């Protein structure tokens, strides 16, 4: 538990009032600090991480996603979802968290000095992790866990296509922790990284195509969707299952919606195709991930960090689709930390 300074009334945050390119729509502003009521807590953010969905909310593309984020402009002015930090205020109905607790979890408005969300969005930070690492355990880690747990069994051959990114780097470690023999597909420069995460076999997609190889897999998690579903299913064993996971491309209006619809239909027609992969973070996932991290089975992989004012650059980098692990935004807490140690 950390000593807590008085909560200020205003804070620095990244805001956006329209959709568009991160460098055109994101700016640093001073806005009010949110206030915790009922079961909510206010967390002083030390670090926030970026996942592919944040990019969608900032750009407003694919346009169909605006049904969830706001039709004409973003419903939440402050983007971002995943954070780690210190609890500085609690609502009167909060029972499980105290001020000073170091936590990680999800919320709306992560790219800010303070966030406010229901207490069940946060769990205690594993003591040995830095705030940057803990912030990386977000939506992507939670989705990787939901897509693999209960589906992958010990001894199975599992292939992760798109193994080195924000979601893939967690998926390799989780599949390994579930007892699978993991084959990771990535580009040449990431081969060593995915091996160090636990992959037994590595396929370099720039020189080899796993759909044309002779190896067959019990489970494929496809984060890249660079082949048709039927072609990818050819790499499965007779009882194998393909879990398509959105993919990184798609048109401006509907994005990968056609893949989502096709997987929904195909999953009704064949047991070898799992249904759509859209997952939302849950407390039980954060708790399970914390256990895996404390057991040494999972370690968040950080590609690089950017200070809060450079969030637009960080998001743009994630949008290039080749992050090695997770990209993290650090919030400068130096002044406030000084106040805490002298108070
Ligand atoms: N189900 C959910 O709720 C959920 C949650 C989060 C994310 N997602 C989806 O998961 C997917 C991956 O997310 P992410 O965070 O890992 O993205 P990311 O951090 O941008 O990583 C993308 C990965 O794709 C790899 N890649 C690019 N082209 C490839 C190819 N031709 N063959 C194989 N791999 C290729 C990249 O590897 P190299 O750098 O080596 O090229 C990189 O590892 C996205 O489609 C995202 O929308 C789903």
Write a structural description:
With 343 residues, the protein is an alpha/beta fold. The chain has two domains: 10-138 and 281-342, Alpha-Beta Complex (Quinone Oxidoreductase, Chain A, domain 1); 140-269, Rossmann fold (3-Layer(aba) Sandwich), CATH 3.40.50. The protein has twelve helices and 14 strands. The strands form three sheets. Strands 3, 4, 5, 6, 7, 13 and 14 form a seven-stranded mixed β-sheet that branches. Strands 10-9-8-11-12 form a five-stranded parallel β-sheet. The protein is globular. It starts with 9 loop residues before the first strand and ends with a helix. 48% of the residues are buried. The model has no long low-confidence stretch (mean pLDDT 93).
Uncertain segments are none
Listing every helix as H and every strand as E from the N terminus to the C terminus, the arrangement reads EHEEHHEEEEHHEHEHEEHEHHEHEH
Give me the CATH fold name of the largest domain: Quinone Oxidoreductase, Chain A, domain 1
Silhouette = globular
- The CATH superfamily of the largest domain turns out to be Medium-chain alcohol dehydrogenases, catalytic domain
Into which percent range does the helicity of residues fall? 25-40%
**Name of the top-level CATH class of the largest domain:** Alpha Beta
CATH architecture of the largest domain: Alpha-Beta Complex
Any idea how many domains? 2
User: Over all CA atoms, what is the radius of gyration?
Assistant: 20 Å
List the ions, cofactors and other small molecules found in this model: NADP nicotinamide-adenine-dinucleotide phosphate
Strand content: 25-35%
**N-C termini distance:** 15 Å
Number of helices: 12
Q: Which structural category fits the helices and strands?
A: alpha/beta
- How would you sum up the major sheet? 7 strands, mixed
Number of strands: 14
Mean pLDDT across residues: 93
């Amino acid at each position: 538990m950390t000593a807590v300074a008085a909560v200020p009334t205003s804070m620095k945050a990244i805001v956006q009032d329209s959709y568009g390119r991160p460098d055109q729509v994101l700016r640093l502003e001073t806005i009010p600090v949110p206030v915790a009521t009922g079961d909510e807590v206010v967390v002083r953010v030390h670090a926030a991480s970026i996942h592919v969905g944040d990019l969608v909310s900032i750009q407003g593309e694919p346009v169909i996603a605006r049904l969830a984020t706001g039709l004409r402009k973003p419903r939440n002015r402050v983007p971002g979802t995943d954070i780690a930090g210190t609890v500085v205020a609690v609502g009167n109905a909060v029972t499980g968290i105290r001020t000073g607790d170091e936590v990680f979890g999800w919320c709306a408005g992560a790219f800010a000095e303070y966030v406010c969300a229901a207490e069940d969005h946060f769990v205690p930070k594993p003591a040995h992790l830095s705030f940057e690492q803990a912030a990386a355990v977000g939506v992507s880690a939670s989705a990787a866990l939901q897509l693999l747990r209960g589906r992958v069994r010990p001894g199975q051959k599992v292939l992760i296509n798109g193994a080195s990114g924000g979601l893939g780097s967690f998926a390799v470690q989780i599949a390994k922790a579930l007892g699978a023999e993991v084959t990771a597909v990535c580009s040449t420069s990431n081969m060593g990284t995915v091996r160090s995460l636990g992959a037994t076999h590595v396929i370099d997609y720039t020189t080899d195509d796993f759909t044309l190889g002779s190896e067959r897999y019990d489970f494929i998690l496809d984060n890249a969707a660079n082949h048709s579903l039927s072609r990818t299913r050819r790499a499965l064993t007779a009882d194998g299952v393909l879990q398509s996971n959105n993919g990184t491309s798609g048109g401006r209006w509907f994005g990968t919606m056609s893949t989502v619809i096709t997987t929904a239909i195909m999953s009704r027609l064949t047991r070898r195709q799992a249904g759509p992969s859209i997952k939302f973070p849950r407390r039980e996932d954060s708790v399970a991930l914390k256990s895996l991290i404390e057991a040494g089975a999972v370690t968040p992989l950080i590609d690089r960090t950017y200070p809060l004012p450079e969030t637009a650059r960080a998001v743009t980098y994630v949008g290039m689709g080749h992050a090695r692990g997770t990209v993290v935004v650090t919030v400068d807490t130096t002044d406030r930390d000084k106040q805490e140690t002298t108070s």
